[in-house]
């Protein structure tokens, strides 16, 4: 699936809704979500990061999304946006992310799940 609303794959407790997390979840989208064919269980979320992700408000959004998906147990793969992609590299990144390896492109491994906004 592509352009999936985060609230369609996860939710939060009533207390967290009261803290504002539910509203934040319902307003965010993921570029792609990979699901298990038979059960439709989410196995990977994919974000394509263009230059807009360098802006401070996008860094805060990405920080929130990284941590929300981690708390929900959904692996996240961040890929730098490009005009074209290598299917071989994408396949390697997807399988590495699903199997618990690096969840970003190699030059971004240290920043995918940064704990600071």
Number of domains: 1
Main β sheet profile:
4 strands, mixed
Strand content bin = 15-25%
Overall geometry comes to globular
Distance between the termini: 28 Å
Topology pattern, helix = H, strand = E: EHHEEHEH
Look at the helices and sheets and give the structural class: alpha+beta
Q: What spatial order of strands do you see in the largest sheet?
A: 1-2-3-4
What is the number of helices? 4
How many individual β-strands?
4
Oligomer category? single chain
Low-pLDDT ranges? 106-117
Give the integer mean of the pLDDT values.
84
Rg (CA only): 14 Å
The proportion of residues forming helix, as a percent range, comes to 25-40%
Written account of the structure:
The protein has helices at residues 14-18, 21-26, 56-72, 87-98, and strands at residues 2-5, 29-35, 42-49, 76-80. It has 117 residues and is an alpha+beta fold. The protein has one domain. A four-stranded mixed β-sheet has the order 1-2-3-4, sandwiched between helices. The protein is globular. The model is unreliable at 106-117 (pLDDT under 50).
């Amino acid at each position: 699936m592509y352009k999936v609303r985060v609230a369609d794959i996860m939710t939060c407790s009533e207390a967290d809704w009261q803290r504002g997390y539910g509203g934040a979840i319902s307003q965010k989208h993921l570029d792609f979500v990979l699901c298990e064919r038979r059960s439709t269980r989410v196995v990977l979320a994919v974000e394509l990061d263009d230059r807009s992700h360098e802006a401070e408000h996008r860094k805060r959004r990405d920080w929130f999304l990284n941590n929300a998906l981690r708390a929900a147990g959904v692996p996240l793969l961040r890929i730098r946006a490009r005009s074209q992609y290598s299917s071989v590299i994408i396949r390697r990144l997807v399988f590495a992310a699903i199997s618990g390896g690096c969840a970003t492109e190699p030059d971004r491994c240290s920043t995918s799940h940064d704990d600071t906004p």
